[in-house]
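User: Predict the complex.
Assistant: Input components as received:
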Amino acid sequence: MRPLSFLDRDRTVAAPGFSRWMVPPAALCIHLCIGQVYAFSVFNLPMTRLLGISAPAGGDWKLTELGWIFTLAIFFLGVSAAILGRWVEEGGPRRAMFTAALCFGGGFLLSAAGVYLHEIWIIYLGYGVLGGIGLGLGYISPVSTLIKWFPDRPGMATGMAIMGFGGGALIASPLSVWLMSRFSTPDHIGVAETFIVLGVVYFIFMMVGAAMVRIPAPDWRPAGWSPPARPPKLVTSANVHVYRALRTPQFWLIWWVLCLNVTAGIGVLGQASAMSQEMFPGKVSAVAAAGFVGLMSLFNMAGRFLWASASDLIGRKSTYFCFFILGIALYAWVPTTGRIGSVGLFVLCFLVIISMYGGGFATVPAYLRDMFGTRYVGAIHGWLITAWSAAGVFGPVLVNYLRVYEIARGVPKSDAYNLTMYLMAALLVIGFFCNLFIGPVHVRHHMAAAQAEATVLAP
Amino acid sequence: MSRQDPSGTRTLRLVLAWSFVGIPLLWGVLQTLRDALKLFH
C-alpha cells in the first residue's frame, strides 16, 4: 500500500449510514483555524519591541515591515486557491485539508524560528508564503464537499463553514493575547513560543477535520429528497469545467459582484474604530470604539450563516439584490447619522452593512454551484477568491485616500467620510447592475455527463 | 438527525464532533461579546 493512501479521494467515500451532519464540523475544524489570519494584527505591536522589550529599540522591526506578513498571506491565499483549486477538486478534500494543515501549522513553526533568530524574511516565508498557501487550500477544500452533501441547502452548508472563517479570529485574538502573556517575562516577549503552540494546536485541529471529512457516494441523496423536476431558471443540473467557466460572462459578473460587495465592506471594517471616533467626537471613546469593532466581528460572522441560509429560500440573485439595495440605502444614510449625532443609528447601519459583507462571502459558493454545477465548484471558487484580493487593495485605499483628500480640502474630520460613503453607495449601484445581468450559462459550456463522471473517477 | 443514520454514525459522535468546534467558537464569541458590551457603557 502506498504511504498516505488514506488521503486518496476514493478512501474518503462515506459508508452507508454516515451522517452528513459530521461534515460541517469537519469543515469548521479547518475554517476556525485559518480564520486566525484576521487576528494576526495582535502580534504586530509585540513584534515591534522584541529587542527593546518595553519600547522599540534600534534593530527592532517597524510596523510597515510587519504589515507585509499579512499582505503576503492574503496574496498567497488568493494565488494558491486559484492555481491549486483544480488539484483540490480532483484530489479530494482530505488530501487538501491535510496539506493545508501542514502548510498552516508549518508556517507558524517557521515563523517562530524567524522570531527566535530575528530574521523577518523567515516570517515572510513562513506565515506569509507557506501559511498563505495553507489558507488558500484550507479555504476552498470543504466547499464542494459540503455542497454535495447538502444539495437541498447548499447556502446553509457553505455558510456554516465560511462562518467559521469569521469565527476563527474571535478565538485567535484572545487566545494569542493570553498565550503571549503566559510566555512573556520582564526581559522577553513570548511571540515565538506562542507561534509554536498555535502551530501545533492548529495542525492537530485541522488534522481532526481531515480525518472526519467524507465525500458522498456518487449516487447518494439526502433521505426523502429528490432534485426538483423543474429547477429554477438560474440553477443548472449540468457541470462546467473550471477553465471553461473562466471564459463565461457569468463568472466575471459574479467576480465583480463579489469584488464590489467586499470593497464596500472591507474598507470600513479596517477603519471602523477611527471612523466612529472621528464622526462622533466626544461621544465615542477609544474603548467604546473597540467594542464597536467587536460587535462588527460578531455580525460579520453571524451574517455569513444567516444570509447564506436565507439564499436557499429566496435564491442567490435575490440575496445579492438585498445586499446592494440595502447597502446603497445604508451607505447613503450614514452621513445623516453623523449630522444628527445619532451613534445608535450609525452603529445599526454598519452592523447591517458588515453582516452583508460576510453574507456576500458565504453566499457566493452556492451562487457558483447554481451557475456552473457541483463538479468544479471548489476550483471555480478558488479563482473567484482573486476578487477578494483585489477588493482588499481597493477598499482600504479608497477609504484612506478619500479621507486624507477631504481633510486636505478643509472638510472637518467629522464630515471627512461622507464622500467615501457616497462612493461606496455608487460602487454598490454598479454591483447591482452586474448582478442584474447574470443569466443562465449557455449549454455549449456544459460538460458531457460522461466527461464529468470520468474526471471524478480518474483524478 | 439520528433518524437519518440508524445504522451508522452514532449520536455520540455527532455530539463530540459539534462540541469539538462549538466550544472554542462559543468561547471566542463570549470573549468578543464581553469586549463589545463596552460600547454601551
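The interface with chain A takes residues 1, 4-9, 13-14, 17-18, 20-21, 24-25, 27-29, 31-33, 35-41 of chain B (CB under 8 Å).
Let me know if you want any component modeled separately.
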